[in-house]
Amino acid sequence: MYAPRMASILFTRGAPSLDIIDQEGLREAAQKAFTDDPGGTFAYGTSVGYVPLRTWLAEQHGVAPEQVLVTNGSMQADAFLFELLVSEGDDVVVEAPTYDRTLLNLRQRGANVHAIELETDGINVDALEKLLESGVRPKLAHIIPNFHNPAGYTLSEAKRTRLLELSAEYDFVLFEDDPYVKVRFEGEPLPTMLSQDKNAKVVYASSFSKTMAPGIRCGYLVGPKDVIKKVQDIATTTYISPNMVAQSIVNSYCRSGRLEESVVNVRTALRARRDALVAALRRELPEAVFTAPQGGYFMWVELPGVSIEKLFPVAKEHGVEFVKGSDFLLEGGDNELRLAFSGVTPEQIDEGITRLAAAVRSLS
Hints:
Aspartate Aminotransferase, domain 2, 13 helices, 16% strand, Aspartate Aminotransferase, domain 1
């Protein structure tokens, strides 16, 4: 067993480590924001967010600025949308597994949550269609299309098309929650459902936490004007404005051209970490079942015959921590876990999986 004083290796947080954050670029962006627009940066703003950033985002997505609202992180954007659309007893659809905070938020609102199996190419649309045919009428379906948290999977193009068709046919909001879209290591990017939406059914969310810095706390929503206006009304009663300083810095950074350079650096580092994780798992835990993600921060791993509930404290004693699969599911997941590889170096990953394997062996 590892000595208690040995530092734990943490596969727990989906955040980039400090060494792959463009600290110098963010310092320059902050200085430029403070110099070029001190009035807009340091004063109260409006509930739609920092207006130049809102305009930039609208241009990126090919929509009118009135279709964009910038918030304090994408989780706040999610919470605003749920407050608008979901009341106690309302039906909602999520993937199984899905992001644990989404489950918590929806359950706290008293929603009737329908968890649909997640396959390696995205949500099981046949199962979703059967649910809809049974008479269930969800207010929204929450979908994480790219490099899913926690699973790492990516929604196929065919399934994106089918989800758009189902949302139009059965009249529900398709909530495209897409904070990892830029962090692709390999393969061709797929068009967003937002960009293909002909029926005003998609509300899109993303964030700068995964490409710029988690501490920047800047996310946004894009959707139909009437939906965004109603969300804006909720934001207005929540605060006078979101964080103008952070949003002004993000705007300065994005317009400087440094964002794409930063994204390339993040992709390069995370691909090396993904590769290290795959290699270590194949060497140390050949029985592990997983699909290597094409991007993002996470890998979903099944350990057949292993109780994760029992493994969790033993792994901690061995100096390695992860998140239990059951945290992301309404039921099940006892032999599954999520490994976040974004905040650990390849060397730490190699050592961490060696420790994890030792913990697994000690159970038997």
